[in-house]
Automatic annotation (TrEMBL):
Residues 1-145 form the UspA domain. It comes from the Bacteria. This is Nucleotide-binding universal stress UspA family protein. Belongs to the universal stress protein A family. It holds the Pfam family Usp. It comes from Ulvibacter antarcticus. InterPro entries: Universal_stress_UspA, UspA.
Amino acid sequence: MKQILFPTDFSENSENAIRYALNFFKDIEAEFYFLHVSTEDQFENSALFVASELVIDQSVVSGASEKLEVLIKRIQNQFKNKKHKHHGIHESIQFIEAIRKNVNHKQIDCIVMGTKGASKLLDTALGSYTADVIKRVKCNILVIPENAKYCDPSNIVFPTDFNINYTDKVLNSLSDILKLKKVKINVLYISKKIRDLSVFQKKNRAHLQDYLEGKPHSFYFITNENIDDAVETYVRITKVDMIAMVAKNLNYFERILFHPTVEKISYHTKVPFLVLHE
């Protein structure tokens, strides 16, 4: 049974991510944990701030717990799935600490978070949290942009520079997706110049080819000075449903996810990202 964690601030972006993931995991047995973390700002802005610290805590905790109950009841009414179980969790500690605590205690397989678009990850509250989770929590994370609409994925792109070893955990996570949705994995290598792969890159590519043998996949090589333009063009032409990346490949990863040219890049606002950790 898969264990899925949903950090939620009860926003529309957050609920859109929840709806997407419930559909994505609809065919497997899973337990879903809906986590709300009360921040210091919520306590400071409370109408009872002048009251005792205990009263403030009870007021905020009570409100969050009620919202979690309402959320879970609404989900159970909208998504009647006997394979799924739902739990609400409220924490009043630092956000990353709360994520790590529940990932470890609940043995979470995947975190699902909504965002207003990867181009705004560092400019919004939930967005900055998403970026922190990707960088600081060693757990697979499915990032759902604000304009993402669910459809059964059939075409997933896997951008890579072949500069990392692909561990069994990463490859097994890819394999799980292939089995879950019967999708095709398109391995995408983007280079600024036409040049041969290094010995190390060739070794990693061969390892990936061996693992994917017998599974639906293709390898594509693109030359483009701008990596964002290359990904944008590829996503648009091939109608990609999801982008899967390895978090360890940080330099390559950050250029795609955290440094887009906002005026030209649109896939950040509608194509989900699956970030794989070792």
